[in-house]
Amino acid sequence: MKLNTKSIIAMTALCTQMFATDAKAQIMTDSNMPKLDSIYTQVPSYWDNKERWSNGPVSLHRFEGGKTKHDSITAVVRYSFLYKLKKENIDGIHYQYDNYEAAIDYDFCQLNPKYKDDEHVQKYAQVIMNIAEKYARIKTADRASSDIWEYPHHNYHETRAQAAVDLFNELTNYGKDTAEVNTYYEKSVRELKDILHPAQYAANLREKGGWDWHWGLLSNFPQGGGLCNTYGLDFGFHYHFDSRFFLGTELQFSFGGGCHGDIVTSERNIEKGEGVNNGKAMLTFGAKALKTRSISIAPILRLGVEDYAFPDQSKKANKKDYSPSITALTYGTGIAIDIPLWRSVRLDEGWYGKRNCYRGIRITPSVSLSDFGNGVGRITTYNLTVSYYGITRWLHDK
Question: Which CATH number fits domain 206-396: 3.30.70.330, 2.40.10.340, 2.40.160.20, 3.90.920.10?
Fold first, then answer.
């Protein structure tokens, strides 16, 4: 078969027309398809038809599960427990706990059409939700008042709630016994009021061990020896063995002006007016003597080492001959006064278990005796620290 120029041109035109028709059809098809975003916005969320108990009474008009299977049943109520980490401020104390609440699932609730406007059936459905809410609150209280290893299995309270609902259905003939429904309704409302709030359970928990930290400002006032006052920073960490005793470490760094007089040591003489820097590393032991909601007082004992450095001497000194500082063994006593500004009660377990958390201001006046033992002798120093602290104390029910 021979193709001339006219045939080739005709075939090319035909192919072009066919491709253009397909493309136009494809464009029309794409334009008629709904956007992906609109598809998702048109589909209602599953959670839209699930209502928490606290959001109001049961509404029979929202039952979406169709009519009941048996004509003898007025309604079928489906519910579940919903979890939420709840935070509340009660009397100035921040509480955080695992909260469970009953929620009705209208998508699966069924209603006998004969009772769609029946007040007693609405009350019947509300009793079921009150029973579920009762056991949800019991689960919340159980989580708040028990140690994590004492918790019952996961669905323990849900199983008990369903058993109570089954008993209620039998006694009321699925809501047809209106007198029994009314009796149960009053009982369910009364029982909800009798369940304690987690904050009330927290009041029965006792503080045990824990830890605390602090950082702040310090001032040292040495008495004699030619040393001058120094001012600086204080850092500390303590471990609490129980509700009273604690042990920890403290680091202090302070800086001063010039010496008040000449300091004569067995190695060298430090002239009046030379600059002074001070550092301390100490072990601290303490015991709570008084604790109220507004103040805590703990006597403390300290033992550590102290070093006075003289920057001016370091410029002059031949480091092969001596170090331009004097070191002493220091020991002392004081009082740690804690003024809490904020308190949180964590009942949600988390990584550290149930605990009290405090934040506040710590004022620690103290006196120390430093024994230099190199010709300087013993020097008494009055100290004052003002710091910001945080305390975490574990809570137990025994």
Answer: 2.40.160.20
